[in-house]
Amino acid sequence: MDSINKNQPEDNFKDLYGQEGIDKIKNLAGKAGSCFFCTNIVTGKAFDTRPMAPEKIDDSGNFWFLSAKDSHKNEELQQDPAAQLLFQGSSYSDFLSLYGYVTISTDRAKIEKLWNPQMKTWFTEGIDDPRITVIKFTPTSGYYWDTKNNMAIALAKRAYGALVGETYDDSIEGNVKP
C-alpha cells in the first residue's frame, strides 16, 4: 500500500536551511506565540515539559526566555543542555519541532531587554529579582508541517480531492535548520 505522500500529485516536501529556515522558524513560532519547552530528553523515558513563551526570537533563529534560577527546568538544563521546543500555530497547520541546546546566564543587560512587566507574576521582586536567569535556546535541527498557501486553498484542495477521489493536499513539510 502506498503512503498518502506517494498518492499526492504535488511535491509536499521542502527542506529549509539558512535564512529560509530562520524565516520559517520565526514565522511558525510567531504564529504559535508559546511552546512546550522540553528537557530531560532520554531515550526510552518520558521527557519533562512545560508551556513557555519566548520573549524574543533573534535574527539568527535563537530563542530567548526568562526563567527562575531555582526551577526544575534550570536544574535539568544545568545537567544536560539539550532541549526541544514544540509549537502548534493552529489546528491544521503551523507545526514546528525544534531540537537544540541552551545556555543559561544572569546577564543583567539581556534581562532588562527581555523584561516585560507581566513577568512579575513569576518574579515577584520585579526586574531586580535575583532568581531571574536568561535561557538562550539555539536550534540545531527541526521539522515543520505547514500549508503552501493558506487554509482556504488547503480546504479547497481537500474538497476537490474528495470529490474526484484523489489526494490533493496543500501541505508542505521538511527539515528546518538555521
Characteristics:
178 residues; 9-stranded mixed sheet; elongated; alpha+beta; 34% strand; single chain
Descriptive report:
With 178 residues, the protein is an alpha+beta fold. The chain has helices at residues 4-7, 18-32, 72-79, 108-114, 151-164, and strands at residues 16-17, 35-39, 48-52, 56-57, 63-68, 82-88, 95-105, 132-147, 171-177. It starts with a helix and ends with a strand. The relative contact order is 0.22. The model has no long low-confidence stretch (mean pLDDT 88).
Note the topology.
Blueprint: H1 4-7, E1 16-17, H2 18-32, E2 35-39, E3 48-52, E4 56-57, E5 63-68, H3 72-79, E6 82-88, E7 95-105, H4 108-114, E8 132-147, H5 151-164, E9 171-177
Parallel strand pairs: 1-9
Antiparallel strand pairs: 2-3, 2-6, 4-5, 5-8, 6-7, 7-8, 8-9
Largest sheet data = 9 strands, mixed
Can you tell me the residue ranges where pLDDT is under 50 for at least 5 consecutive residues?
A: none
Which secondary-structure class do the elements indicate? alpha+beta
Q: Tell me the number of strands.
A: 9
Helix percent reads: 25-40%
Distance between the termini: 36 Å
Mean pLDDT over all positions? 88
Shape descriptor reads elongated
Discrete helix count = 5
Brief account:
The chain has 178 residues and is α+β, with helices and mostly antiparallel strands. It contains five helices and nine strands, in the order H-E-H-E-E-E-E-H-E-E-H-E-H-E. Strands 1, 2, 3, 4, 5, 6, 7, 8 and 9 form a nine-stranded mixed sheet that branches.
